[in-house]
Amino acid sequence: MDSARPGPGATAVAYRDTYLSWRGLAHRVDRRAQELAGMGVSKGDWVGLMLGNVPDFVILTLAVSKLGAVLVPVDPTLGTRDLDMLLDAAPLRVLITRPRGETTATTTTALRATGKPAPPRHAPEARRKLQGSLLNCVVYPRQAPATVAGLTPAVVLFTAGAGGDPRGVVRTDRELAAIAATTAQGLGLSPDDQCLCAAPLYQAYGFDLGLLGWLTTRHALNLEDEVSAKRINQAVRDPSIDVFPATPATFGALSRLVAVKPLKIRTPRFLSSGSELPAAVAEAFAERFGVRPWSCYHTTATGPVSIDEGGKNPTSVGKPLPGIEIRIGAGGSASPAGSVGPIWVRGPGCSTVAVPPPPAALRPSGVAPGDADGDGWLRTGDLGSLDRAGRLTLTGREDDLVKVDGRRLALGEVESCIESFTKVREADARVVLDDLGGPMVVARVVSIGTCRADEVIDHCARHLAPFKVPRQIEFCERLG
Hints:
The protein is built from eleven helices and 28 strands. It has 480 residues and is of the alpha/beta class. Helix 1 (22-38) packs across helix 2 (55-66) and helix 8 (248-255) crosses helix 9 (279-289).
C-alpha cells in the first residue's frame, strides 16, 4: 500500500501560487514543532489555530500533533462574546492568529456604561511571532487537564450548543482515525485524487472531508479561502480536481454565474453539507457545470454519516457510509420507515464528550442530544426519516439551533442581541431559505420610536459573528 502513495517530491498542499511537496511539508512541520516547543508547548497542552484555509493551518495542525498537544481550531470570524466563552471552555496554552487577531480574542468590545471597553477576561503572559511569518502567538499562563472525562483529547472542534453557546466536541486519536477511514472508504479516495477544499478547515465538515481524508490517502490538497464565486469557479476548473466539499450556499452562488461551461472531470465527488441542498440549486449547478452535487449528512459529534452518492436525490442525504448505523425513533426504539423522529447514529468515530459539559436536562428518552445510550447510539439533535431503501431525509431540529453557511447558531441568541439594542422592544428571528443562495437569518422587530434597519444590523455586527447577523430587518407593530 505504501508503494502506491506519492513520493516525497509530489505535491501535498497547493494554495494559489504556492505548492508544497511532501518533503517540503515535513520540513516545515518539523521547524514549527521545534518553535512551538521553544515557547513551552508540550504534550497535552491545548493550542488554538485561529486561521482560515491557508497552508499554515495544515502545517501547524501537523506540528501540534507531532508534539502530542491538543489542536483547537477557532473560527476567525467569531464575535467577541463567543471568543471569550470559547476561551472559558478551552484552556488554551497558545492561540495562533493573524495580525491583531489576539486583540479580538483576549478583549471584549462590549462597552460599559462609561463607554470604555471592558478589561480583558483572559490576559496573556506573552506575545510572540512565528519566525518568517506574520502570525502572532498569544501565550497564556494556563495548564490543561491531562484527560477530559477520562479520555485523552487530540482535537477539540467547537460548534454551537444549547442557547448558541460554544460547545467543544472532544475527539481522540482513535475517533479521528475512524472518521478518516470512513471518509476515505466512503468517497473512494486514492493518491491520484485532488481535493479542492473551500469548506473552512476550522469547521468539522472541512476538517473531516478535507484534512482527514487527505491525511489518509495522501492525495493533493488544494486550499481556497475566498468566498467569491468567480474565484472558486476558476479553481474548480482545474481538470484534475475531482473532490470538492462545499456548502449549499457555495453551489448556489456558482450556479448563478453566467456563461459557464461544463466541467471535464473523471470521477467527480462534489459534496454539499452544512444545511439542506435545495433541489433548484442542485439542478441549476448540474445544468451549468455538468456535475451533480452529492448531499452529505455530517455533524461535529459523528463526522460524515451518509452521502447521496451520485446526487440522484438531492432532497435526501443518502445512505449510511461504511461502518455507520442510523436509527430514527424516540424512547430508545426504532420507528417504522417514513416516520419522522430524532436521528440516532452509531459508529466508531462518534464522540459524546464535550467542553464545557452539556446541561443535565434530559429528554423523555433519558438521553439528551449529544449524548449516547448504553448501546452506543448517539442522539444527534437532528430530526429526520428513513425510507424503505435506507435513505435519510433531514426535516429539522429538536431545538432552536439552525445552520447558516455550514455553522450552527441559536435563533434565541440573535433575538437576545437585537433586543439588547435600546431602540428595540421585541424581536423574532428565523431562517429563510433562498433557493439560489442558501439559508440566511432575517428578523421581525418591534421598535421603540424611530429605528432604522441598518442601525439594528450594525448593532448585531458589533456583537455577533458575521454568519449570525440578520440579512434583513422587517419592522412590525407586534409579533405573532
